[in-house]
């Protein structure tokens, strides 16, 4: 398929329709910004998406904006219990997870080299930085040889 560009330099919609047919995606931080835009696009391309966020009212609004083929799950990706609940719901509702778009995160402004990583104990008792348990859980949830994970923020919580 040849790609055609519009005047703004983006691909025309018809070039990508159906690219994600039958795929199940998880988009953390999917209630606003890049995460919400990605959820809309994934649904346009045929995926069913689960979006997460910490605020239920923002999730409810995001679901209205996405329209169909979306489930919102309230929780904090930095909390292992919330992640366990999220993956149980995905397993119960869809039985698989093909794509993780790890977008949730926070920004802390400080000069380079002046911040120290936090540590947290996981279920196995290992110490990891605060953003690692969620990345570990997200990647662990992917099954199959054609699964994908995308990170948009190097400081994922």
Keywords, separated by commas or semicolons:
30% helix; two-stranded antiparallel sheet; 4 helices; 5-stranded parallel β-sheet; alpha/beta; 157 residues; single chain; Rossmann fold
Written overview of the protein:
The protein is of the alpha/beta class. It contains four helices and seven strands, in the order βαβαβαβββαβ. It has helices spanning about 35-45, 55-65, 80-95, 130-140; strands at about 25-30, 50-55, 70-75, 100, 120, 125-130, 150. The strands form two sheets. A five-stranded parallel beta sheet has the order 3-2-1-4-7, sandwiched between helices. Strands 5-6 form a two-stranded antiparallel sheet. Helix 3 runs parallel beside helix 4. It is globular and about 40 Å long. Mean pLDDT is about 75; it is low at about 120-135.
């Amino acid at each position: 398929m040849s790609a055609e560009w519009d005047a703004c330099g983006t691909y025309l919609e018809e070039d990508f329709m159906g690219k994600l047919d039958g795929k199940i995606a998880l988009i953390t931080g999917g209630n606003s910004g890049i995460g919400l835009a990605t959820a809309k696009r994934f649904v346009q391309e045929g995926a069913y998406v689960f979006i997460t966020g910490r605020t239920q009212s923002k999730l409810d609004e995001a679901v209205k904006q996405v329209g169909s083929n979306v489930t919102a799950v309230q929780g904090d990706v930095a909390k292992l219990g919330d992640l366990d609940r999220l993956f149980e719901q995905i397993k119960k509702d869809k039985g698989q997870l093909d794509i993780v778009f790890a977008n949730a995160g926070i920004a802390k402004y400080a000069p380079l080299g002046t911040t120290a990583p936090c540590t947290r104990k996981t279920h196995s008792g290992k110490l990891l930085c605060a953003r690692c348990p969620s990345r570990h859980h997200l990647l662990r949830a992917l099954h199959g040889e054609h699964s994908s994970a995308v990170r948009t923020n190097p400081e994922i919580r």
